Each structure stands twice: as C-alpha cells, then as structure tokens.
Amino acid sequence: MSRVRASHETRRRLAALATALLFPGAVTACGDDNREAGSAERDRSESRAPTRDPGQSKEPKQRQHVPAEKMTCTEFRDRVTVTFRVSRRPDPRGQRIYMELSVRNRTPYHLSGSTDGWLGTTASADERDSIVWGGSSADFIDAPRRATSTHIIRPERTPWLLAPAWARISILSAAVIELYGDSAGDPVPSNCSMPAHITAPPGFVIGHPTGSFTQTPPQARSIKHRAWSRS
Predict the structure, then answer these.
(1) Greatest CA separation found in the chain?
(2) How crowded is the C-beta side of 112, counted as CA atoms within 13 Å?
(3) Which of 22, 103, 118, 167 could disulfide-pair with 123, CB 3.0 to 4.6 Å?
C-alpha cells in the first residue's frame, strides 16, 4: 500500500516538473497580467499625445508692420473739409461779425496746421478795424482723427468784429496754409493746397451774392496782399 502511494506522489511531482519545463510563463501569469495592462495603457496614452514639429516656435509670430502708402492730394482733399463760416448779430452800436473755422477730418490720423486771412468791411478796410490773422501761435489748429474741430477766428480784444449796421464785407481772405500729420510715419501729404469753403449770409460779402463760395490758398494770399497794400 505504501509503495502505491509513493508511486502516485512521484507521478504528481514529475507532472508538475514537466509543466514548469514546458510552460514556464504559466507560473507568473497572474502577476504579469497587471503589469501588461499598465504597459498597454501607457502605450495608448503616448499614442494620443500631440507631437510638435521641432522647427515650430512656441512663441507666436510677431506681425510685421507695413507702412501705409502715402495718400495723394486728391485722396486727402476727399477726406478733409475746411470751412470758414461768417455770421453776424445785432448790437446796440451796429453789428457784431463772427468768423469760425471748422476742419472735418475723416482720416484715421491726428492733423495739425495753421491758418491765415483777412476780413475787412466797407466801413473801414484798415487793419485795426478788421479781423487779421496768421503767423502767430494762436493761428495753429488741431484736427483730431475722425472728428470735426472748431476754431474761432477773432480780433485781439473781443470774440467779434464790431461794425456799423450798414457795413458789408469787402475783403475776405481765408485759408488753411498747411495741414500735416502729427506723426512722422503718417501717410499724410504735407504740401497739398487745401481749398476753403466759405459760407456767409446772402449778400453780405461783396462779389458773392449767394454767400457760399470756395477759395484756394493762392487766391487768399493774393487778396490779403492787396489788402496790405491798401491799408
């Protein structure tokens, strides 16, 4: 009986040894399953990670500044309007004559410039009895971008010119003699002759019965020169 039991034990051990020799991975299968699962998950994660081109910079590319092409004088005049407005109001001593300059700037640039002119009446064409301007710091103008700016043209002592009620305007020279961009890189021409639109009450300005006319800087300079020679 003992030899039979020993024979069964011997066969069992031989079978176990044969299994280990023929299938060595079977003994560690349980532990390896967990490691293989973790390795597979890492492989999937790495396959999903985005790849970057070695030549691609992490910093965004800077936009290059391309200077705007300088406007022509025709384009500039289409976008900037210069208007002188003459008005009058009654006064116990006669009438008050006012003059106002407006610059409508439709460009995206801030503009600066200067103005010049002469307004005289039939009562007296003398400089002391006229509105004469130009050549001083008070005659410089600013025109903000995409806006209309207003500037009062006035004698030295009062905001208006006092004249007799019957007086009319006999001399009217009004011009913006220069208009330019504030920044050196602005594509604004600096040598364009800007025509001035002049409005006044009908019949108030001699030679212009409708009260509405246009004057160029050369015309304005010629009229002012004649006024200087007569005063």
Answers:
(1) 158
(2) 9
(3) 167
In this structure, what token pair is assigned to residue 192? 């364009």
C-alpha to C-alpha distance for 112 and 83, rounded to whole angstroms: 15
CA separation for the pair 207, 148 (Å, rounded): 29
Residues 169 and 227 sit within 8 Å (Cβ to Cβ): no
Beta-carbon contacts of residue 174 (< 8 Å; ≥ 6 apart)? 84, 99, 101, 115, 117, 119, 153, 196, 198, 215, 220
CA atoms of 61 and 216, how far apart (whole Å): 49
Instruction: State pLDDT tens for residues 62-83.
Output: 554 445 578 898 999 999 999 9
pTM, rounded to two decimals:
0.69
Query: Do 141 and 151 contact (CB within 8 A), yes or no?
Result: yes
